[in-house]
Structures are given as C-alpha cells and as structure tokens.
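As a representative case, we now present a protein record of this kind.
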Amino acid sequence: MNAFPARSLAGRAAASYRLSFIAPAILLLGFVSACKEELPLDSAEPIILEGPWALRETISYDANRTTCNSAGTLSIAQESRTLAGSYTRSVTCGTAGQVTGHSESGTLIGGRLEESTVRFKLGDCEYRGVSTTAALATLSGTVLCVRLVPSGTSSSGAGTWRADRLEPPKPPADTLRPSPEQP
C-alpha cells in the first residue's frame, strides 16, 4: 500500500502548471541581472556616446500612407549627460507608387542621457532609445515626427531608428595620464 495519498488529476496538473513557470522565471531574472551589469547606462558616470555614428531610420506617416527611409551620419558631442551635435542624411519617401528623395542636414538639439534612455531631436523628429549591445556600439529605439504639410496642417509619423558607432569611443582625458614609471 502506498504511504502517500493519490492526488487528483486536476491537482497534479495544477502543480505541474505552476512549476512550469518557475524555471523560465529564474532564467529571465538571471538574464535581466546580467544585462543590467553589462549596460552601465544607470551608473554614476554617463556612458560615452561622443563621436560619429551611422544612422538609419524608417518612419511611416499614416495620414498620407507615406513611408520614409533615411541613412546618414550623426556626430555627437557630449558634456556629461548632455548631448549636442549634427547630422546629415539622405531621405527616400514613397507613397502611392511615387518615390521622392532629398538630403538633409542639421543640428542635434535637446540631447540627454536620462537613466537608461538616450533622447534627442533631429529636425521635426524626437528620438528615444537605449544601447542594444554590451559594448555600447549600437543605439536603437523609436522616433516620433510632426511635420507641417503644404496645406498648413500637420502630419504625424512614427518609426524606428538605429545608430552604429563608426569609431571606438575615446577615453576621458583624465585617463590619458602616463603611469609613474613612464618619463
């Protein structure tokens, strides 16, 4: 005779169901903890974003069913958590079988590192993103745009962007001092 009472089929299924979530939850917590340690965006010292980046984006405007793709460069200057700089890009937009293109250049304004988020504005568009690699070589996120159209109304668009570092970051100036053994 069995010393343990038999559980009902429903009871065993419920216990199995609860256990099936434990291992994935533990793995997820471990992954999140590891990523948080690798990406120092919340650290006391801000990450170094200064330098040239290759920028790509796709923005869709629902009102007139236009999709715009752009590629160019973004040059970031950084002072602690404040970002400034400039950009140049080629833009191609398509709607109803028609494709148009133009080039743009301008100033990065309102750039800021806020906890784990990078924010800035290029032209009529606001960018928000995070580093997607532990080496801080890629930034990506969302972009929201509001543009005035010839009729005097505005057109809103949303999309995604990605920037890949073109050069390794330069170390802060205070880390470039020679060691005491060097003349």
In short: The beta strands are 51-61, 66-79, 82-95, 98-114, 117-122, 125-131, 138-148, 154-165. The chain has two domains: 9-38, 42-165. Helices lie at 9-38. Residues 9-38 form the longest helix (30 residues).
